[in-house]
Write a structure and sequence with these properties.
heterodimer, A: 621 residues, alpha/beta, Type Iii Antifreeze Protein Isoform Hplc 12, six-stranded mixed β-sheet, 14 helices, elongated, B: 91 residues, alpha+beta, four-stranded antiparallel β-sheet, CBO2463_dom (chain B), Gly_reductase_pB_sua/b (chain A)
Chain lengths: 621, 91
Amino acid sequence: MSITAETAKEHAKDPAVLCCRAEAGVTIEAANLEDPAIFDDLVDSNLLNLDGALTIEQVIGATLTKTCDSLTPLTADVLEGIQAVAAPAVEEAPAEEVPAPEAPAVPPVAPVAPHAPCAGGVLKIHIGEGKDIDIEMPMGFNHGAAMAEVPAQVVPVAAPVAEAELEPKVIRSVSRKHYKITEVRRGPETKIEGTVLYIREGIEEEAVASQELVHSLKIDIITPEQYHTYSETIMDVQPIATKEGEDEVGTGTTRVLDGVVVMVTGTDDNGVQIGEFGSSEGYLDENIMWGRPGAPEKGEIFIKTEVVIKEGTNMERPGPLAAHSATDVITQEIREALKSVEDDSLVVDTETFEQVRRPGKKKVVIVKEIMGQGAMHDNLILPIEPVGVLGARPNVDLGNVPVMVSPLEVLDGCIHALTCIGPASKEMSRHYWREPLVLEALHDEEVDLCGVLFVGSPQINAEKFYVSKRVGMMVEALDVDGAFVTTEGFGNNHIDFASHIEQIGMRGISVVGMSFCAVQGALVVGNKYMTHMVDNNKSESGIENEVLACNTLCHEDAIRALAMLKAAMAEEEVAKPEKKWNPNVKATNVELISKTMDKTIELVANEQSLPMSQKRKEKYD
Amino acid sequence: MKYGDKIIYMEGVIVEIHDGCVGIDLKGRLGYLKIPMRMLITDYPLVVGQEVGWNMSFVEQLGPEANEKYVSNLDTYQRRQEEMKSRKDDK
């Protein structure tokens, strides 16, 4: 199919190929050329060979000297009057993302060639024909001072809003008091004595009685020596935390137990896993990616409930919710015990999180898409206690519409995740408690994080677009410069994920998308605004590897996304994605960022670090 | 995969709808598929009897070995089901 003059301009540097037969003597124009978007497939299947092909900008206006068939690449020997094009500058490093360096990082600029236009806060330096480098970097978009380093011949720019530096403002803060637990025992009452947590004998019956659908509940206390035991599929991992006094989630003081987590597991009466499909049942130590934000740390004690719910309810909404609610009866009693601890000497550490607004900096928002298709694809929003059940609203009942929360509410357990399928990519309750992107954006002094917008992912497309339009309107009203859109897992949630990005992007706001994609989670739809993407994959082969939390958003992804959003807001070009998933793109970018920021970014391990039977190894990787 | 690029258009009928998944009978008695909701793209409200279509290829073995992890999980699952069944029968 021929292309328009506009498309030809966009693809000026792409190879020129005839879209249909053209007679000798014809003057080549856009209408004679094929759309370069389809070339990859043709080259792959050997239908097209682009060797020696001229670029579109070279051939437009040239005359064909020989009659050629369709899909003939235009080379110098069939054309007359080829357009001379300025010697192409040395290509930029094929980076998916170019990080925003600190202002003083400006390299020596002596050999600056004729033009070095400064626009929109971006300094472009072209080094003529040299075989060295072509540097393009955002000039610390908020420090007008950085411009001083620009060489004299550069046209002075209207210094980007060099207003008086506005002071950062602390809006609210949350303190976390950590209590260390080294042993969990059963006893006559639930209490904390020193570093020992006692859980009342017989509490199981009350937990069962609290939920009609729950038929039995067993508590296992798993110590590190017992990691190699069989477990039903892990539905959730939760921190045990409570608010002090009248404090609400997101403000005041939170008490949290260190060294112990609650783990929800279960089946229905027929032994069918709750949360079928790619379950993580099996030996705990082979199925948990330790240390992921949502997963347990190695060395922690698990208070693991094994809930049995009424047969056939494992795939209906009330089933998984009942399993979570029954478990919360136990957690709630531990919270009460934690509340009543009076001995302050048991506090081993106090952390304070401040929500800082940074007026004058680039304003950004995090849009987190959470599952809302029903059953275990649901999340309880804003419980009274951190990661509790009471007082929370299921996001499905809220109609999946966007809900704005503060970054501190996220870190203080405002999401109780029922978590979906795909153990490797699901974000469990603990994930939000340690959400790396929120932490990273909150602490970054170059951006002004205004809030976190949770939006559910409904099942039906019409509803998906309904909610994503609301996201667009809300983000527009926020007047932000940039936005992150994250999602967990893959499937039809990628439809609204793409739509959120479109709704934000079409309003002229820079947007970075984050999802597990790689091989198995390849995006099902796309649009022209999906240019800045970060893949959360960690697995060796790019698949859902059934290892809990392996492919979830980690610190390293947050760093990449933040660097990318900064680059996007500074109107940096981002290299096009490769046709197929290539893990090297991530490696290159991480290297670039750590070089520019002069700090080592430690990458997390993947499933290869776990004990694994030889056979599984052969099959998967 | 040896035959991965042999993609075939398949059709089926939705025979079960749950909050979290749907069951699909492949037309021509070619099998049954149970998929989580999020792997189904729905332009209309779901109703039993709706026809669905998708592309798939033949299913190939990846190798001759059985994966012990899955064998052991399957054993546990079957043993558990029997235990639960006998517990129910006792009631």
